[in-house]
Predict the structure.
Amino acid sequence: MSNIYPQSLQLHIDGEWLDVEDRDVRHVINPSTGKTISDLPKASIADLDRALNAADRSFPIWRDTPVGERATILRKAAALMRERAPEIGRLMTAEQGKPLAQAIGEVSGSANLFDTMAEEAKRCYGRVLVRPTGQQSFVKYQPVGPVAAFSPWNFPVFTPARKLAAALAAGCSIILKPAEETPASPIEMVRCLIDAGLPSGVAQIVFGDPAQVSSHLIASDVIRKISFTGSVPVGRHLMKLAAEGLKRTTLELGGHAPVLVFEDCDLDKALDLLVAQKYRNAGQVCVSPTRFYVQSGIYEKFATEFTKRAERITVSDGFIDNIGMGPLANPRRPEAMERLISDAKAKGADVRLGGEAMDRDGYFYRPTVLTNVSLDADIMNNEPFGPVAVMRPFDTLDEAIEQANRLPLGLAAYAFTDSLRTANIVGDKIEAGMVAINNLTVSPGDAPFGGVKQSGHGSEDGPDGLKAYMVTKAIHQS
Ligand code: NAD
């Protein structure tokens, strides 16, 4: 693996790839071994100022590029991403740990976002209002301006792809700061855009000290819009910074997805889907199914069968063929799991499976199932972001909905039922940005993706995600 990962990484600013040179560096760690695999240059304030100037200068050029030409470049970048997906996937597995097949799939899925947004931008129609003869009033959508985007380490390519694809399709320039822990795969995505012919300065990628980079970029008059995916506390902090300049924000923050499993559902189908999805990316997914509320009549059977299936998940280095789960992405995650699981146990939870780190190098944790978890256990209230399913029984539909809605978060929610009435009520009453019933698809690319309550605001993907990078203007002529 070490021979495929670059020994040092680069920033891309103002059309130039910049090496470490005299910049401070940060080590990149392989989570399967805990060892350093590369050095990442940290942007200085002078680098950030250069990026801001380039974003400002390139914005009108890109804004005034006909939408068809913008779309051609984005589609070409998507084609390059598909072509390079095996290599980019390997970089992602090396820096993030997920199984290689999941990493390659993430790159291809990200390419689809560029295709979707390329087409969406062409159909971003305004409207003509009814006026007397000789007068015209119309509404049009225009790109908001240069964007600063911040993305996390759990989906190193897909989360920044959401921001890049929409901002670029809308006609904005964008400075992206992905997570410093997983830099190589998003760097290669930006390379696809540059190789596809994106004009210099339109998409730039920087790394550094996150707090310094975000405060400097957000404070600049150049930046008109902020997009962030990550934790609730950091989202709150960035929103305060954005408030100073009254800048628009899209914030996709944590979740703690409830799963309501009703007695009338197709249990085998629900179990197969849920177990695969729970441990995908080692549970480090903002829409991961986490709080399992299961109707009393099938609770024991569900817990037993879920545990049996979870037991079969193989955990190893993401480069080993056909494994189900890799390590957690950084040492903070196993530490958080230990803390949450011992608290749950102390408050009466039964550990049906796992509940401990694996005895090997790297940040490996066993797939875990907890039942009868007390509502006051931390894990029922704070997003675990790890390979753990927590289960509780319920009796009535009202009780299930009340439990699903009890947290101040609302990103994804899931339900399994064969009753149309139950499905309709669940769909209407659950407080979440996305509800999937009898399936787990909440991120198809052409539908809005985003949360309610403290899970954030604004939508990514589809027409709503494109509009997030546009301002609405009314023009009145007589
Ligand atoms: P964190 O809160 O320190 O960081 C979250 C993300 O924000 C990281 O990508 C980090 O690089 C970035 N970040 C941190 N401070 C920043 C700043 N001042 N400006 C700009 N970016 C900044 O925590 P963490 O340990 O990386 O993750 C902890 C929790 O965050 C997880 O348990 C999970 O709840 C949440 N999280 C959510 C998502 C998501 O997809 N919504 C992704 C990653 C993490």
